[in-house]
Structures are given as C-alpha cells and as structure tokens.
Amino acid sequence: MTNILAIETSTDNCSVSISKGSETFNFHEFIPKKHTERLLGVITNILEESKLNYEDLNAVSVGTGPGSYTGIRLSCAVAQGIAFAHGLKGITLSSLELLALEVYKRTSANTVVSLLETASNQVYVGESSFDLGDIESTFSLIDIESFQVENYPVDTYFVGQGCSLFSDIKDSLPEEFPRASSLIGITNLRISKDQLVEPEKFLPIYLNNEDSWKKIK
Fold first, then answer.
1. Is 51 left (phi over 0), alpha (psi -120 to 50) or beta?
2. Does residue 12 carry a pLDDT above 60?
C-alpha cells in the first residue's frame, strides 16, 4: 500500500490530499492570505482523517508555481521539512501542469494549454501533452497581445483564469484551480518508474525570461 501526501498552495485555494492505498482524502478550501497559519493544521487534520502518521508516508509531492510567491515558498518549505525529517522522496509539478491534469482527468484531451494572468499584462502559458498517463510540458511567459489561439490545434483544450482574456477560446475550464489531488496519480506512476526526486529539489520556480524556468534556491 502506497501512502502519499500532496500539497498545493500557489493560489488562494489551500489544497492538500493524502492517498492511502486506493483511498484518497482531500482538503480544498478558498482561504486567501491564511495559508501560512492554516497549512500545518490542515495536514494534521487530514492525517488524522486517514488514520496515518508521517512515518506511514511513502512520498511527498508538491506544486511549485507559478502563482503566489508566499504560497509556493510555503508549500515547498513544508514539503521539504516533512520529507527530510522522515527520509522521503517525491515529485514536483508546476501549477500549470496541475491545471492541465484536471482537464485530462475530465476530458482525456491530449493537448492542454494552461493560462494564468499576471499583474504585469503578461500571461503564463503551459503547453502540456500526455503519454500513458504521464505529462510533458513546456512553459513561457509572454505579453498578452502575443498569445494567438490559432497557433494551436483545433482540438486543444484551455484551462485557467487566463482563458477569460481571449474571446476566441472555445473549449475551456476558466474557473479551475490547481489541486493537490492531481499530484497523486502522477506520483504513483513515477514511483513505479523509480523517478522520485530528493527533497532538496522541492524548489519554487518562476519564469525569469520569456522561455525558461528558474528555480529559487
């Protein structure tokens, strides 16, 4: 039986999930600016609900942004602390990939574009595809005016609050937010492939130019 703790706090929603074998226990709540004071208590409560202790966990997984700077620093720090304290490995996924996974679970769309608006008239773009349940993605940060829907195949599905910026987007989930529960399946898959990473790699990431990610150490 595999037990996984997953944490995602890159938005105003605090999202924590635990898998206990085939069971999953979820907490998803809109709590703006309260993540720091609430997160550890949420984890404690969901562990109690699942009747697990930290010592029972097999992996810790975390969403790493982009999004709220405070939120992604918090989730990465908490995930690192738990993993280091209990000798665990895990995985990290961008919040853009977690959005894409929500679409994939609901629609089986093979090409998903995740869009998140920034405060500087730009948009984060995550372009994701799927192969045997795993995800491959590229990321960019571009000016809103530079984004062209017609550059994507007609069967592309779009997700994220940035969808509302573009009136010509058809198939979309504009109100979706990244969920910790989306980390569970990918973590199980990567456990089977022996692809977990050490906790020192649980690092927040942001786009430092138009076409590359940079990890914050």
1. left
2. yes
pTM for this predicted structure: 0.93
Q: Which two tokens stand for residue 195?
A: 């692809």
- The SS3 assignment for 150 reads helix
Q: Please, are residues 204 and 68 in contact by the beta-carbon 8 Å criterion?
A: no
The identity of residue 52, as a single letter, is: L
- Give the pLDDT mean for 14-41: 97
Query: Running DSSP on this structure, what letter comes out for residue 98?
Result: H
Cα-based angle 32, 120, 209 (whole degrees, multiple of 5): 110
**Alpha-carbon gap, residue 28 to 30, rounded angstroms:** 7
Q: Which residues contact 50 (CB under 8 A, 6 or more apart)?
A: 3, 18, 20, 23, 25
What kind and span of H or E run contains 197? Answer: none
Q: Token pair of 184, please?
A: 């569970």
Degrees to nearest 5, angle at CA 101 with 19 and 145: 145
Vertex 95, ends 182 and 158: CA angle to 5°? 85
The string of pLDDT tens digits covering residues 97-130 is 999 999 999 998 999 999 999 888 899 999 999 9
Residue 30: alpha-carbon gap to chain centroid: 16
> Helices in 51-136 by DSSP H: which ranges?
69-86, 95-107
**pLDDT tens digits, 84-96:** 999 999 999 999 9
Residue-averaged pLDDT of the chain: 93
